[in-house]
Amino acid sequence: MDTIIYLSVIIQLALASYLWLPIILLIISFILKPFRRSVSPVCRPGKSLKAYKFGIIITAHRETKFLPPIVDSILKQTYQDFHVYIVADDCDIHDLHFTDERVHLYKPEIALNTNTRSIQYAIDHFLPGTEVMVIFDPDNLLHPNFLEVMNNYYNAGYKAVQANLNPKSISSIYEKMDNTGATFYSFVDRTARTALGLSVNMWGCGVSVVTEVYASIKYNDKSDMGGFDKHMQAEIVQHVPVIAYAPEAIFFDEKVSDARNLELQRTRWINAYFKFLPEGLKVMLTGIFSGNVNVAFFGYNLIRPPYFLEILIALGFVIIGFFTHQTMMLFWIGSLFAFLISFILITLLFTPGKSTSGLWYMPLFFFHQIRSILKINLNKRSILKTEHFKVLYIDDVILNSKT
Fold it and tell me: Where exactly are the structural domains of the chain?
């Protein structure tokens, strides 16, 4: 009986630790701020830089309307040593015409239907000497100094760098909610970890890595059904000293603008979480047994449940504690309160442009995430893609961000 009680306490402490982590990271971040030197290579002028050769991969699937805008943003880069490899999988490319010789457009003869295969298809067509690869979704846009910043980071010795994702626009309620959640996760998973010298989480886009490091990744069948970025980062963190975050390397994407796409997106993410949960646990154990704090902490965060599930779990323990153990109930109420305070503070302090109106809609956001988990058994193929609608060019996005 005692064993069961001890095991229950350990499980509860492990789950609750994720609710306390954001406030702990926020406190540590502010304590260290006066003593911390900038770790950004962009802030170190006067050093002669090597010009790395970048291979930019864009994976399109059954849709091409966003390709001209992203190519336009790439061609407007202040850093020009790059080639673009567009894999237009199962697309009609008759209306696509790019005159710059650095833009290579490919349509596989047989539909690939997965990100991992499209990425590999592009790599197989890399020109000799391609040193760093950068992966983008077709609806992304690059700030003009994106590659210049990345070149600075690779000159500083980093082998994998995640760029800073910003919204193209945040006009609708759902875009505001999506952006609020992204701000919170960006601090917890990237900004705070950078301050501590730890590896940051990667997205499936805006991620760059030395080509040789990416070649060491071995994908499995699970990656073909979505969530490949979870497997990718689990492999990369074990092959590089640290995965860096480049907040100055800005790129943009379209936030979800309606309830249907929000729920489908979250269903896909939840599905990917459970699918790759064993890999996250393996990474954490690898770090623990090898004495590598960076890898262990990275794995600890990989197995973190989505925060709305954490909240539901916490509420469940509050109810159980009400009937069985008051101390348990108070502990979980305190954990929920700590998380709520951290969420509000992080959103207020770190939202770009201080557009924090999305906070008021977070209960609605929470409701849609609950609905999304009820759709977890939908046919996987029906939820692989989030629909995007706004065709914007980089000049428009930058102009709007200044107004």
Answer: 53-258+283-293
Radius of gyration for the alpha carbons in the chain, expressed in angstroms and rounded: 22
Residues β-bridged to residue 165: 251
Q: Are 361 and 313 in contact (CB under 8 A)?
A: no
255-285 pLDDT tens trace: 887 888 888 888 888 888 888 899 999 999 9
pTM, full prediction: 0.91
Q: How far is CA 124 from the centre of its chain?
A: 25
Q: Are 5 and 300 in contact (CB under 8 A)?
A: no
Identity at 110, one-letter amino acid code: I
Q: Which residue from 266, 271, 303 is spatially nearest to 286, judged by alpha carbons?
A: 303
> 225 or 263: which carries more pLDDT confidence?
263
- Per residue in 198-211, pLDDT (tens digit) is 999 998 899 999 99
Per CATH, is 53-258+283-293 categorized as 3.20.20.80? no
C-alpha to C-alpha distances, 268 to 157, 168, 275, nearest whole angstrom: 34, 22, 10
d(CA 19, CA 12): 11
Task: Specify whether the CB–CB gap between 242 and 195 falls below 8 A.
Answer: no
